[in-house]
Amino acid sequence: MVSISLCMIVKNEEDVIGRCLESVQAFVDEINIVDTGSTDNTKQIALQFTDRVFDFEWIQHFAAARNYSFQQATKDYILWLDADDVLAVEDQQKLKQLKESLPSDIDAVSMNYHLSFDQEGKVDSLLRRYRLVRRDKQFQWIGAVHEYLEVSGKLFDSDIAISHLPLHHDHMRNITIYKELIQSGQTLSPRDTFYFANELVDHGQFEEALFYYEQFLISKLGWIEDNIRACYKLADCYAHLQDTDNYIHSILRSLEYDIPRPEACCRLGYHFMEQHKNHEAIYWYTQALSLQQPTHAPFQNKAYTTWLPHLQLCVLYDRIQQYELANTHNELAGSFLTQDARIIHNRSYFKTLLQKEKNS
């Protein structure tokens, strides 16, 4: 059985760090907490779980802090988490089983990262990240912001999931670091250019974001998944700026990198739906349902292949008075969102409507 060091960097996480450590403490052999300047009770809470609490002077560089945390590890493998991450009970057991059965020649293990949940608590957005790595490989973190762990060798995709359950977020932290890097004369890498554009969108700076997304795509150095996401983000910017032509162009631009993704199909469907071009919209939402995402796709938004296209098809078929089909799609949407108010309302509406048709 392999041994595991948990390594975390934290700052002012008193509201969540205990929850995180409670969910994982029984399945790791060592806990290393690197504090980057907390002014609350974060360190005191961490000391209830481990005496390996270290200080690291914050230098506006996440990779530097994470690399320092990895240097504190002494066990076979390193598991990294953020303070607002949690392992559900079923995933705790999966981690236990992995620890007992993992071949020692595996260099890195990926896990699902559950980013958001629908109104019924089901996962609707997730991605994959390498979470468990061999210590002796000395893998390094790269990037001041939105850092990533560069891994290689023999890799393994697990079915373990980590849930991201934040209670608060410092909305200015990342964009401030990026702007300081630019002001200091540093050239952003293509990846950082993409993530800086994302930060600009989150702060409503759409025209500036357009510039950086274009710089990222023009570089031709981006990961294909980021290229596709950049196209969707460009579309969002143009939508906010009410530029319909460039909105459509940006969605179609994603086809330069791969076959149509479900999200692209739903975006095109919405465009035609807004123009009351119902048959065109029906085509694209139907396409979205036919393009199931692979289980191990790096980014997944389940809404685009489940309830969302079905609910939109319900509306569209109702518009063209194909009520049986509309009702069918409403029920299919309801199989994913059982308590959704829209679906419950539609169910009542179609029950009355179809009964009138039957009696007429």
Automatic annotation (TrEMBL):
A Pfam family hit = Glycos_transf_2
Q: Which domain of life is it from?
A: Bacteria
Domain Glycosyltransferase 2-like positions: 5-126
Q: Which InterPro entries match?
A: Glyco_trans_2-like, Nucleotide-diphossugar_trans, TPR-like_helical_dom_sf
Q: Which PANTHER family match?
A: GLYCOSYLTRANSFERASE, POLY-BETA-1,6-N-ACETYL-D-GLUCOSAMINE SYNTHASE
Know the name of this protein?
A: Beta 1,4 glucosyltransferase
Q: Native species of this protein?
A: Lysinibacillus piscis
